[in-house]
Design goal:
Structural class: alpha/beta
Helix content: 25-40%
Number of strands: 17
Radius of gyration: 22 Å
Strand order of the largest sheet: 3-2-1-4-17
Distance between the termini: 49 Å
Low-confidence stretches: 1-6
CATH class of the largest domain: Alpha Beta
Shape: globular
Mean pLDDT: 94
CATH architecture of the largest domain: 3-Layer(bba) Sandwich
CATH topology of the largest domain: FAD/NAD(P)-binding domain
CATH superfamily of the largest domain: FAD/NAD(P)-binding domain
């Protein structure tokens, strides 16, 4: 939990319900029909389009934009979903500014790309509003696959396998499916319970049974899964939390940013959520930005992101950095936490300036203190207790090819596995590609 009655400065209802509701409206209101046609008309429909290469799921972006331009958004959605079954969520949360839109020829020529993400949302929302599923299952194969983790990788894998006629048992440790889409993304990016609605829509393919409250190592044994199923896919993400390694980390008011966001995403009443008066978020990724911005939107008076390296090295994109600054968040670079001050509960954070050199990052010895009654750690997560003989490298499940682990019959993808950036769209691609490999293996290909 992110609050304690012993923690001074952390309190709920800092803002009126009306102000809270206004603060957590849709970050990017959806395009209407006319706006979508105007936006689509800016696309050059490039041959060998660089935006396709920049998309981890390799969506045919010029084709789906042309389909929007010709008045067939449902066909555009099918083009998107063929490659990315979570295209609706990815349209909302993908860092398009550093992926497809950064590669857009309009961006290179004019500094203003085609709004690919907004057009993708327009298409997928149009199709999903009809509550129809555009895919049908192949004939039953008689094969059963266990998918552990109902986040982006697991959902993508389960859907592709179900579509090919396999029966899927999908397990997740939490009460709901969706993974970080449900529990770990800023509420203003995915309003109206979209993550849950997308899971329900995806399940319309049939052949997938979701079992919640089932954690690997606690409720599920990897050896038993391997014995009971024809194949196993692991996509459970990272459940452990990195240590801050700063004095006073155990004080009241110091909490995990992912847990803070999860509490916010599951809250029925935003005014019931406690937030500090002076909040410091430690980290430089998307989770840090989401936690910081939402702290400000909940009514925190001062919010600071503390990142140990330079602005250029910050994992969150410049767009996300600017969004945080626009919401009133202060960004402090080249500084690392040293200790939390206060008697029992944190009252301040002592930080030290850093400098990068040939021997890596070092402290300068110069310190400063930030007022902090709430400190949120967004410094990454770790793989938590994967049993069995799986090879672990770099703190993640080692994989080769399309997610093949070191144990025959077990595949892995998403944040828990070695691979690319920890992005929703990357996890979707890895789950999809693993499903294709599993299918070929099961069918003797």
């Amino acid at each position: 939990m992110t609050n304690s009655p012993l923690t001074p400065g952390i309190a709920p209802a800092r803002l009126d319900p009306e102000d809270l509701s206004a603060n957590f409206t849709d970050l990017h209101p959806p395009l209407d029909d006319h706006e979508a046609l105007v936006a689509a008309d800016r696309c050059y429909f490039c041959h060998d389009a660089p935006c396709i290469t920049a998309c981890p799921t390799e969506i045919d972006i010029p084709l789906f934009i042309r389909q929007i331009a010709t008045g067939t958004p449902e066909a555009a959605a099918k083009t998107i979903l063929d490659q990315n079954i979570l295209g609706g969520m990815c349209a909302r949360v993908c860092p398009t500014e550093t992926l497809c839109e950064e590669a857009c020829v309009r961006e290179l020529a004019e500094g203003k790309p085609v709004v690919i993400g907004e057009l993708q949302r327009y298409a997928t929302d149009t199709l999903m509003a009809k509550n129809e599923h555009p895919f049908t299952r192949a004939a039953a194969t008689g094969k059963r696959v266990a998918v552990v983790g109902a986040g982006p990788a697991g959902l993508s894998c389960a859907h592709r396998l179900a579509m090919k006629g396999h029966d899927i048992d999908l397990f997740d440790a939490r009460p709901k499916g969706g993974g970080l889409n449900e529990y770990g993304i800023a509420a203003y990016k995915t309003v109206n319970d979209f993550a849950a609605a997308e899971v329900d829509w995806l399940m319309q393919i049939g052949g997938i049974t979701l079992h919640t409250g089932k954690a690997l190592g606690r409720d599920l044994g990897l050896d038993a899964l391997k014995s009971d199923y024809d194949a196993v896919f692991l996509g459970m993400g990272l459940a452990g939390v990195n240590a801050l390694r700063a004095e006073g980390e155990d004080k009241e008011g110091v909490a995990d940013a992912v847990a803070f966001i999860a509490d916010l995403r599951q809250a029925e009443d935003l005014s019931s959520l406690p937030v500090g008066r002076n909040v410091v978020v430690i980290g430089g990724g998307m989770t840090a930005v989401d936690a910081a911005v939402q702290s400000k939107l909940l009514g925190a008076e001062s919010v600071t992101i503390l990142y140990r390296r330079s602005r250029e090295e910050m994992p969150a994109s410049r767009y996300e950095q600017d969004l945080a600054a626009a919401k009133g968040v202060r960004l402090v670079f080249n500084a690392k936490p040293v200790r939390m001050t206060g008697n029992g509960a944190t009252q301040g954070l002592v930080a030290e300036y850093t400098v990068s050199g040939p021997d890596g990052l070092k402290g300068t010895g110069e310190t400063f203190t930030l007022p902090a009654d709430q400190v949120l750690k967004a410094i990454g997560q770790t793989l938590d207790g994967v049993p069995g003989d799986l090879r672990i490298e770099g703190g993640k499940i080692a994989v080769t090819g399309a997610g093949r682990s070191s144990v025959d019959g077990i595949w892995a993808g998403g944040d828990c596995a070695q691979g690319g950036e920890d992005l929703t769209v990357t996890a979707v691609a890895e789950g999809r590609d693993a499903a294709e490999d599993i299918h070929q293996t099961l069918m003797g290909g």
